[in-house]
Write a structure and sequence with these properties.
The complex is a heterodimer of chains A (134) and B (206).
Chain A lengths: L9 H15 L3 H16 L4 H28 L10 H4 L2 H8 L14 H12 L9
Chain B lengths: L1 H4 L3 H44 L2 H18 L8 H29 L13 H4 L7 H19 L3 H13 L3 H8 L3 H19 L5
Classes of the chains: A mainly alpha (134), B mainly alpha (206).
């Protein structure tokens, strides 16, 4: 009296035989309905076009997301458009001149000789008047 | 754009080739699936019929299992189909049993009974096709009825293990995958099922 799944006992063999006979003796109408059910199931299966779409959908979604991100980044209010940015429209020579600290001393007031400029202005004003020394 | 233009004609040739290959692969899979379903449908129906004791419900359960397998899991490797299919079927059977219990409980509170809702089986459609002989067939049918009756009295998991093993012929590993439990549990359920059936039916005289 074995009841192992590897070595079926007589009882199990008999039960198996009965069950398999009952499968074979299914009424024709039931078999026909099962066949119809099978075709219905197979027709509900996704088509190869759907499979293709499903395969490429992640790549498409990724590309779309990248495009949307790029558009949003360009149109953002904080971003500077090339037309409004004075630096972008400046010629390269102008930028070079601005960067050259030796050419123009902007804001280096400590080195300006104000006495010289005052003397030069007074000289210009008094150009028509007789000179003090002469 | 420039990058796509520089891919060259050989790359563009690959796209229709891939599409054709995918179409062929999908058609092969469809043929494989049809063969598989044709192979399991009758056995699955008997398993559902024994568990539910109702032909129309059993047909519904099998059809639902087929549809779910075809719709959701047809892309899986074919060797996975059988355990998946029977797992879906068993879940469906359990759902139907639960629903039936709830319906019975609700109906028991009603002043009228819904006995007329249960369809009486059509004796013509129930008639067996091939018969070995009237006496032998009668005896076999009586034994089968006794076995079926005893199977319905088993706990669900024991019946499941016994039927998957003896109707479908699944091995321990496949049965465990279908029942979503360990192989040890399958052995235990199966052993208890055999013990219980034998105590009720004796040796199933031939």
């Amino acid at each position: 009296m074995k009841s192992s799944m590897d070595e079926p006992s007589e009882f199990e063999q008999r039960a198996r035989q009965l069950l398999r006979d009952s499968v074979e003796r299914l009424p024709a109408e039931t078999r026909s309905r099962l066949t119809r059910a099978r075709y219905a199931a197979l027709s509900s299966r996704p088509s190869w076009q759907h499979s293709l779409a499903r395969r490429w959908a992640p790549a498409g979604v990724g590309a779309l997301a990248a495009a949307v991100f790029a558009v949003v980044f360009i149109m953002m209010p904080g971003s500077e458009s090339p037309a409004l940015n004075p630096l972008s429209s400046a010629a390269p020579e102008d930028l070079e001149m601005l960067a050259d600290s030796d050419a123009v001393q902007l804001g280096g007031d400590q080195d300006v000789d104000y006495d010289f400029y005052e003397w030069a202005v007074s000289e210009a004003k008094g150009a028509g008047a007789p000179s003090v020394g002469t | 754009m420039l990058a796509f233009a520089t891919l060259g004609p050989q790359t563009t040739d690959l796209l229709p080739l891939g599409k054709a290959h995918l179409r062929e692969t999908t058609q092969d899979a469809a043929r494989g699936l049809e063969t598989f379903l044709a192979e399991v449908e009758r056995k699955a129906f008997r398993i559902a019929q024994i568990a539910l004791r109702h032909e129309a419900d059993a047909l519904d359960a099998v059809q639902d299992a087929m549809m779910q397998l075809a719709h959701r899991y047809s892309a899986r490797p074919p060797e996975e189909w059988k355990p998946l299919f029977y797992r879906i079927l068993e879940n469906r059977i359990r759902d139907m049993q639960r629903r039936r219990m709830v319906r019975q409980r609700v109906m028991s509170w009603m002043p009228w009974r819904a006995e007329d809702e249960e369809e009486a089986p059509d004796p013509i459609s129930q008639a067996a096709d091939a018969a070995p002989g009237p006496a032998a067939q009668l005896e076999s049918e009586q034994t089968m009825q006794a076995l079926e009756q005893a199977l319905t009295q088993l706990p669900g998991r024991q019946r499941e293990a016994f039927l998957l093993r003896n109707i479908e012929g699944l091995d321990v590993a496949e049965t465990a995958a279908a029942m979503k439990c360990s192989q040890g549990s399958v052995k235990t359920h199966y052993f208890r099922a055999v013990q219980a059936l034998r105590s009720k039916l004796g040796d199933l005289a031939t």
